[in-house]
Design goal:
GO molecular function, one term: carboxy-lyase activity
CATH class of the domain at 101-351: Alpha Beta
CATH superfamily of the domain at 101-351: Type I PLP-dependent aspartate aminotransferase-like (Major domain)
Order of helices and strands: HHHHEHEHEHEHEEHEHHHEEHEEH
Distance between the termini: 62 Å
Strand order of the largest sheet: 1-7-6-5-4-2-3
CATH architecture of the domain at 101-351: 3-Layer(aba) Sandwich
Bound molecules: pyridoxal-5'-phosphate
Oligomer: single chain
Shape: globular
Strand content: 5-15%
Family: Belongs to the group II decarboxylase family.
GO biological process, one term: carboxylic acid metabolic process
Modified residues (N6-(pyridoxal phosphate)lysine): 298
Cofactor: pyridoxal 5'-phosphate
């Protein structure tokens, strides 16, 4: 690493990225390339001799950017957002600059200690119970994704039980969640060796806005206990991926407690909103949870990846995930004086991810972050009102945060045709490249998801998106 070469090239790269953001609205939001497009554009093998940065930048402009879907575009309304910001970017840059690998405290004490402090800060902003703070038995850790977060707590919960009942009990362990829970839970069960038939994804419907019914949970647990199975893990969601359903944490937590079940709360997307006092009630009941996760990289201005996980009992994680090879031994770890985050996660190596979250919190401050969330929710409300005003459309589930689930009503209410119609509408709208939305299916109905949350989105983008959707719907209704 030559410092002067870095200075010169990094300036050029920052200019390139700044220009990208300046012109981001000129790109089709959803990449329009065909599968395999890049192989025809790039050579078969790596170059023998060095090339100039400018040559590479030219290729990025001409060959890579066409194959990029622009998640930071103000017209990106698909999935859930994945935020970037100046502070997040600078933190990411610094992390790349220092390029440490902070698996144990000794490998960069600041990385571990800053992570503990920043996770405590955020736990306080979210008003999480004190048991999640690092001062006691609990604490927070940054994982790469929510999928890793749910996997590690599932493993911890599994091993807690197996220590009591013996490894033969694995076949009997049962996991509970609603059928709206992110597929990350199913993957965690697969990896964790949970018998495929013992992952209970309980049915939900529109009568509870697709939230998990405590009665259904109680029934399932009673049935499983009666046949000798062992209920051990409950995953509730605040802000489900399809429709932002909120599971009733208070009641679910009591059921979990009464049955000795590990209670995990996944607030990957909606957790960010809970820094605003008016939305905090959606996680009421988190007090009864054993673990809680929220993705700062979704809707908290922190560049991917930064998934926050808190646990009340760090030892449960450590007992499942720690290893202690000779080549990593050091005085601080041996004396149990420090946190070694390698024992809280799957990989050994870990990046200095707390820097970007720390920078976001410091450079924006709570008040600005709250305004940011409120503005997106206001824009989503505007979109919801626009949909509601047009009798050709319906809002399918009540909007809670910044996602609107809606559909074009089929003429004469022909249910079958409704799905085709909405699939066609989505394809046509997305193929314009002007906006990008995604879909889900609820109660057999194909539904369009309009998720507001890109940092650059303003009211004009929402209005223009709605005009485009209306514009593309009209001819479809004529031919259907
Ligand atoms: N949980 C919820 C509620 C989500 O919405 C998502 C992704 O959108 C996930 C988990 C998975 O997130 P990740 O990609 O961080 O694993």
């Amino acid at each position: 690493m030559d410092a002067e070469q870095l200075r010169e090239n990094a300036h050029k790269m920052v200019d390139f990225i700044a220009d990208y953001y300046k012109t981001i609205e000129s790109f089709p939001v959803l990449s329009q390339v065909e599968p395999g497009y890049l192989r025809n554009l790039l050579p078969d093998s790596a170059p023998n001799r060095p090339e100039s940065l400018q040559t590479v930048l030219n290729d990025i402009q001409a060959k890579i950017l066409p194959g990029v879907t622009h998640w930071q575009s103000p017209n990106f309304f698909a999935y859930y957002p994945s935020n970037s910001s100046v502070a997040g970017f600078l933190g990411e840059m610094l992390s790349a600059g220092l390029s440490i690998v902070g698996f144990s405290w000794i490998t960069s004490p600041a990385a571990t200690e800053l992570e503990m402090i920043v996770l405590d800060w955020l736990a306080k902003l979210l008003k999480l119970p004190d048991e999640f703070l690092s001062s006691g038995q609990g604490g927070g850790v940054i994982q790469g994704t929510a999928s890793e977060a749910v996997l590690v707590v599932l493993l911890a919960a599994r091993d807690n039980v197996l220590r009591k009942v013996g490894n033969n009990g694995l076949e009997k362990l049962v996991v509970y969640a609603s059928n709206q829970t992110h597929s990350a839970l199913q993957k965690a069960c697969q990896i964790g060796g949970i018998h495929p038939e013992n992952c209970r994804l309980l049915k939900t419907d529109s009568s509870t806005n697709y939230s998990l019914s405590p009665d259904a949970l109680n029934d399932a647990i009673s049935h499983d206990l009666a046949v000798g199975l062992i209920p051990f893990f409950l995953c509730a969601t605040v802000g489900t991926t399809s429709s932002t359903a909120v599971d009733p944490l208070l009641v679910l937590g009591e059921i979990a407690k009464n049955n000795g079940i590990w209670f995990h709360v996944d607030a990957a997307y909606a957790g960010s909103a809970c820094i605003c006092p008016e939305y905090r009630h959606y996680i009421n009941g988190v007090e009864g949870a054993d673990s809680f996760n929220m993705n700062a990289h979704k809707w908290f201005l922190t560049n991917f990846d930064c998934s926050l996980l808190w646990v009340k009992d760090k030892n449960a994680l450590i007992q499942s995930l720690s290893t202690n090879p000779e080549f990593l031994k050091n005085k601080a770890s041996q004396a149990n004086m420090v946190v070694d985050y390698k024992d809280w996660q799957i990989p050994l190596g870990r990046r200095f991810r707390s820097l970007k979250l720390w920078m976001v919190l410091r450079l924006y401050g709570l008040e600005n972050l709250q305004c940011y969330i409120r503005n997106h929710i206001k824009l989503a409300k505007l979109f919801e009102e626009l949909v509601a005003e047009d009798p050709r459309f319906e809002v399918v589930t009540p909007r809670i945060f910044s996602l609107v689930c809606f559909r074009l009503l089929p003429p004469n209410n022909k249910g079958e045709k409704g799905n085709e119609l909405n699939r066609d509408l989505l394809d046509i709208v997305n193929s314009t490249g002007k906006i990008f939305m995604s879909h889900t299916v609820l109660s057999g109905k194909y539904i369009l998801r309009f998720a507001v949350g890109a940092p650059l989105t303003e009211e004009r983008h929402v209005n223009e998106a709605w005009e485009l959707i209306q514009d593309k719907a009209s001819p479809l209704l004529k031919i259907s």
